[in-house]
Amino acid sequence: MVSGLTSRNAESNAPVMVWQGSQAINIADALLARSPSNGNLAPFDLTPFNAYALHARPIDSSTESFSGAAQVLGQPAGGLLVYGPQPTDVNSAATLRAWWRLTRQSDSATVDTPEFDLWVVAHQQGVGVVMGLIARRARSFMPASWDKLRKLATVGDWELQNRIEANKRRYLRPSAYVDAGSEHLLDPFVVDWLVRRSVLDVIPTAVDYWSDARTSATTPQEHATYANRIDALEKLHALLQDSVDDAMEEFASVAGPYSRKRAFSPKSDTEGVPLITADPVGHPQSFGTFAPRVLTPDYYLYPYSYPFPDFKLPTTAGISP
Fold first, then answer.
1. What ranges do the domains of the chain cover?
2. pTM over 0.85, yes/no
3. Which H or E run contains 7?
4. Residue 318 pLDDT
């Protein structure tokens, strides 16, 4: 009986990355056993097992992409496994979920570890550019649209991740900023807020994509499908906008202050109350007297009664008052 089996890759929540077409980077992991009494992790002893394999599937499918034999690194008691990618494993960029499968020598029973993210990443724009936790969760709000945008040469993973990076720079204080590979270190509430904020920025691009697709639809069914997608995205935008606005204050208390100021922010007193001038009709103010050096409007166009008896208007253009 095997219980508490996990791995360092699964526990870290960070993706394992290999370059598309490269077999020089091995996929390694440390298998761990979690204590049922205190939850502590210790190396998992591989001695009772005689076969080890790495399996992988697309993130949105249960069909396996590949599987292959792995090797023990060092002593079996250390729980270290390594897998050398084959040419067909990494011939195209993909976002995969991977796990280790162990076969016990005594009865050929198998046991699997929890899954971890495995990215086969490309060096060019498009599918496979390094993305983080926020992008993966943002996809869950609009999977069909997100996948379409990932494959566009004008958008791709690169531009989608750039939207997220811009929001992290805009709303996180500088000391809280993390790169894509470390987003799992952020407070879960902060991650959720940034996910929603980033989806709001991507929705207009998705709407434009489906609008363009609708114009080239060849059947009434396609036209109706694209229109429904646009309507669903617009409703999602309204829903997310409300949730982002409602949680703004809480987000600021956890991750703020913002690294950049808004375009307009009225001055406030020490208690945060905006300093806005009161209506002079309902709240008349007494401003005292002004020094005679204050500039005045043209006397001939705007005759006033001046309270200073010694004040004389200067001669202007040869005309005396």
1. 5-121, 133-255
2. no
3. strand 5-7
4. 45
